[in-house]
């Protein structure tokens, strides 16, 4: 491994054609990567040049600096950052203010103070007066009090010399774009809000337009009302075909540093995407769950099924052979009975009797693992084993809600949204489509559109957080195209093959 630096001069064009960008809440640089990967047809290199980036997370800021230049990255709390006079004219301000308070994952309905950080974004826009500003956020942002406040500021307060660009009628909700519509092999819906300075609209004689889609859902692609002949969504298959040619890196060879590393080494070591095909070490229960969930399956595939762990190093997954209910009237598991093995070509039957409780669920305190006596069909005497239920009480009693928990990504479809804990299948549909494992950092980064040579800094959890929080690179490219077409005054096009995603 090595430290890596790329000067700001390498990241984009120079001279009159340069579009100068400030990236706030920059993370590892997903939006910046999209802006710099974008190529206007007939123009060599990127027109976009990032002149300042602000990111408080030290590992994310180090990743950003490794890819786009350290000298213009401010690793500070945005409340402490003041744009200096040396910043010069700024054409575009982009950023995704923290959004957890109005995310669908904030199930308690709490609006944390971190949501007020979006006001810092507004403060910077008011200070530097860019020609265009772009806010990227969760799909619920346009229905939040923060967005209502933004509208008020545009209409009557400090942003009154700006106008918000009306979203297209085809948007998937107010101001919502789907990354799959722009070439990402992932369905990720994000609110994208453009603001343009009114004097620019008057000078150019038009406003900015939202980017047109480059892809459509497979069902739309074959409809007669798809006269443009847009391609169907890219699928996750191409990512897994690529990762199948990679060696899974065992935990003993993990190239990412651990938190125990010295601070100077920790934040200077960088690893390219190509080296992030990192294996994990799931326990026996997790491995049994993974094996039990078939293609396209999820947590519901585990209902009524148990893993039997024998004293000899062997195990088998079983389910009841009779019609007795899995749970009794009190909700506890009814274990005693006759079971049959689950698996191709194995119809072995077992008579099982509980000999004691070994483990209870932490939240419900319901028994979930048992010491049992197992008598295999045709055997003369029972043997001792440990029996662990593969599902949970909550998964059993809730038919509604997300089915993505403990789910496999589907063959022939884009992936679900890549979040920060994609390496934990209990958090979503993050199992490999065919292999009995969660997706790797490498696969998640490719699903987000990051190139093989993008460099990452931090521990496994740091890098996972950076990947999951990033704007998909293809969506960033589409946003850049919309900005370029507005400021340039003509449709831009994209040079074919100039910016491969992987």
Automatic annotation (TrEMBL):
Main enzyme class: transferase
InterPro entries: C5-Methyltransferase, C5_DNA_meth_AS, C5_MeTfrase, C5_meth_CS, SAM-dependent_MTases_sf
Annotated coiled-coil segments of the chain: none
Entry GO MF terms: DNA (cytosine-5-)-methyltransferase activity; DNA binding
SUPFAM superfamilies associated with the record: S-adenosyl-L-methionine-dependent methyltransferases
Keywords in alphabetical order: Methyltransferase, Restriction system, S-adenosyl-L-methionine, Transferase
Protein name: Cytosine-specific methyltransferase
Naturally occurring in which organism (per UniProt): Cellulomonas marina
């Amino acid at each position: 491994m090595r430290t890596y630096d790329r000067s700001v001069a390498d990241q984009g064009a120079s001279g009159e054609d340069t579009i100068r960008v400030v990236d706030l809440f920059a993370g590892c640089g997903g939006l910046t990567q999209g802006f710099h990967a974008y190529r206007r047809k007939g123009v060599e290199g990127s027109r976009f040049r990032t002149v300042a980036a602000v990111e408080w997370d030290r590992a994310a800021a180090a990743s950003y600096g490794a890819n786009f230049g350290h000298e213009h990255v401010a690793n500070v709390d945005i409340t402490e950052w003041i744009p200096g006079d040396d910043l010069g004219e700024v054409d575009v301000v982009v950023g995704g203010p923290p959004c957890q308070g109005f995310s669908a994952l904030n199930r308690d309905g709490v609006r944390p103070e971190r949501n007020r950080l979006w006001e810092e974004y507004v403060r910077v826009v008011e200070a530097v007066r860019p020609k265009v500003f772009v806010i990227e956020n969760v799909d619920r942002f346009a229905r939040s009090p923060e967005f209502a406040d933004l509208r008020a500021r545009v209409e009557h307060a400090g942003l009154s010399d700006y106008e918000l660009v009306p979203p297209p009628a085809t948007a998937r909700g107010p101001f919502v774009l789907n990354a799959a519509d722009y070439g990402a092999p992932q369905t990720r819906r994000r609110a994208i809000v453009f603001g343009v300075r009114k004097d620019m609209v008057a000078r150019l004689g038009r406003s900015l337009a939202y980017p047109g889609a480059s892809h459509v859902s497979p069902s739309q692609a074959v409809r007669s009302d798809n006269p443009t002949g847009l391609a169907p969504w890219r699928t996750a298959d191409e990512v897994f075909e690529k990762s199948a040619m990679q060696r899974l890196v065992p935990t003993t060879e993990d190239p990412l540093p651990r938190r125990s590393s010295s601070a100077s080494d920790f934040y200077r070591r960088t690893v390219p995407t190509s080296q992030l095909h990192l294996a994990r070490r799931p326990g026996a229960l997790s491995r049994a769950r993974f094996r039990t969930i078939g293609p396209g399956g999820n947590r519901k595939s585990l209902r009524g099924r148990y893993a039997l762990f024998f004293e000899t190093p062997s195990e088998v997954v079983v389910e009841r052979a009779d019609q007795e209910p899995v749970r009794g009237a009190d909700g506890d598991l009814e274990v005693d009975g006759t079971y049959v093995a689950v698996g191709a070509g194995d119809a072995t039957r077992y008579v099982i009797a509980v000999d004691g409780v070994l483990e209870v669920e932490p939240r419900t305190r319901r028994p979930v693992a048992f010491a049992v006596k197992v008598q295999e069909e045709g055997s003369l005497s029972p043997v001792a084993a440990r029996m662990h239920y593969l599902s949970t009480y909550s998964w059993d009693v809730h038919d509604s809600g997300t089915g993505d928990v403990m789910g496999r990504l589907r063959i022939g479809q884009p992936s679900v949204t890549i979040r920060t804990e994609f390496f934990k299948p209990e958090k979503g549909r993050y199992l490999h489509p065919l292999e009995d494992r969660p997706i790797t950092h490498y696969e998640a980064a490719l699903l987000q559109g990051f190139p093989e040579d993008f460099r990452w800094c931090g521990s496994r959890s740091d890098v996972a957080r950076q990947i999951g929080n990033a704007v998909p690179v293809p969506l960033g490219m589409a946003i850049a195209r919309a900005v370029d077409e507005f400021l340039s005054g003509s449709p831009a096009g994209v040079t074919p093959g100039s910016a491969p995603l992987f």
